[in-house]
Amino acid sequence: MSADNNPTPPNSEKKSDKPNTNRPKRNRSRNNRSKSGSNGANGANGANQNREKPAQDGAKQSPQQERNNRNRRSGRQRDRRKKKPSNRISEHFSKRDFACKCGECTKSFRISLGLIGALEMLRNSSEKRITIHKGYECQESKEKSGNFRRNHFTTGIAALITVDDMSIIEAFKLCEEIPEIKGLGADFKLNMVYLDTRKEDERSSWVISEDGSELKMSDDVRKKYLAD
User: Fold this and answer.
1) Calpha distance 115→136 (Å, rounded)
2) Whole-structure pTM over 0.85, yes or no?
3) What is the pLDDT of residues 190-213, one digit of tens each?
4) Is 95-225 a domain of CATH 3.40.30.10?
5) Around Cβ 68, how many Cβ atoms within 10 Å?
């Protein structure tokens, strides 16, 4: 008998019990990082796509963009309004209307709220603009003018006014309807109306003629100067 009972086929190779170490290893950590990076990039791109893009020139804006633009503009306007100091002391009058006209005044500004209220009532009843030609007057200006007649300007309770599109007679009669006005004069020399809110029970009224004469109000004076 032959010693080789199980002959080995010529083309067969002997299998090794050792594992094959030549197989390439996968770099799982690198692959995971690349995948996570790509996912992050895709998420960022998606977020950017969801953001509203500014409209180009001539391009129609979405309703949301228009609302955002309006809100931004209104916010800037409110900020600008807050920064500007206001001189307004009532709905239709400001501090500048009553400031002393001397140009050298160093005294504090004084004006009566009662006078402001009376002028606002006159403004509402006439529905016309009122021009303040003289309001507060400092003591130095009063002394230089030498005019001490019925001068309540230094206490801030008097004003010399005209009313747009109204004659001095019409403005005077409209002032007579306001009980808060206690001093009232029709100045035909200056073509203006004087009024004050002095603390008196009875009203004092007068007329200053064109030659500067002061006439206490009476029936004859009213008929001569204030007749319709």
Assistant:
1) 11
2) no
3) 999 999 999 999 999 999 999 999
4) no
5) 13
